[in-house]
Write a structure and sequence with these properties.
Pathway: Amine and polyamine biosynthesis; spermine biosynthesis; spermine from spermidine: step 1/1. The chain is of the alpha+beta class. The protein is built from nine helices and 20 strands. It folds into two domains: about 5-115, 2-Layer Sandwich (Double Stranded RNA Binding Domain), CATH 3.30.160; about 180-364, Rossmann fold. It has helices spanning about 20-35, 80-100, 175-180, 200-210, 225-235, 235-240, 255-265, 290-305, 325-335, and strands spanning about 5-15, 35-40, 50-55, 60-65, 70-75, 105-115, 120-125, 130, 135-145, 150-155, 160-165, 165-170, 190-195, 215-220, 245, 250-255, 270-275, 305-320, 340-350, 355-364. It has an eight-stranded mixed beta sheet, with helices on both faces. Helix 1 (about 20-35) runs antiparallel to helix 2 and helix 7 runs parallel beside helix 8 (about 290-305).
Amino acid sequence: PDMALRHYTLDFSLSAAVDSASTVPGLLSIFHEQEMTETVHDTNGHGYLATFVGKNGRLVILRVHSHGLVTIDLQCYEDDNIAQLDNLLNALEKKLKVLLNGNVTRVKRLPALIRGAKVDRYWPTADGRLIEYDIDRVVYEEDSAYQNIKILHSQQFGNILVLNGDVNLAESDLAYTQAIIGGGKENYAGKEVLILGGGDGGILAEVVKQKPKMITMVEISFMGSVIDGCRTHMRKTCGNILDNLKGDCYQILVEDCVPVLKKYVKEGRMFDYVINDLTAVPISTEPEEDSTWEFLRLILDLSIKVLHPAGKYFTQGNSVNLTEALSLYEEQLEKLSCPVDFSKEVVCVPSYLELWVFYTIWKK
């Protein structure tokens, strides 16, 4: 059984510090009614701290901080009586409002954090904020030679591809795909297109509709891979495009893109568009990436070399809040062997729950 833990929090911010001796006794009857036993702990002068342990392994931590904050933490198991626990929290909230009469500036009660559940619903944003998704099940999970691949089902976003714990793309995220192919401003008819990564098939499925001359997509792994999972579980994103590795105007090469790019440079191959949809973290079997920046610059350099003079290179950047990372990226563009210009666009990608930056790069 899923023995997850529910963690409730209730906070009272006060306009002035309170004396625990005048507030705590008034709360004890509530804990006693719940048959909870109290232990008071020594805090070395940092206010009052008590724990209450009750039936079914319930635990309450009551803390009166010396600087004017009262915090209550309640932990219980997933199968406990939730209504009873709500009543306990309601009673404590009501009683504290009376006891702290007029001293309360804010009461904050958060939804329960579910800890240790079978299905993890918490993923940080790129800038380190906590998001809780409405994920109810794991649809697919594999460890490829390069990364952990999960496809999770969300009620509002559909299936979500998560690579190494990083939300990559959901079936709701057509905005991402449209942004990384030029935001509807490009005409791909009769063009030569190179896609790096893009194993979810979204870019390929969209660009194919415009009847390009040829799309070459290079994705590093196949079996137990992104392609494998997405062609079964992300069909709203890729349609049936991943069912075959070759089509009228496309081919998917299951290879590391670094040697492929180097080969194209040697052969003098040219593309009208290069679309870089590799994961933000370097994945390659080539030994020369000392860091993410080295890898990014290597890919950029090689891509610009296979780009027609009038061609365009599209890629995702990062969260709009990560201004430092974006500036560093833009600095890399100054260091390429061929001078380039760029423009950027900020797009709201539904499942990211944050604004995302996309780049268009071209030769000067």
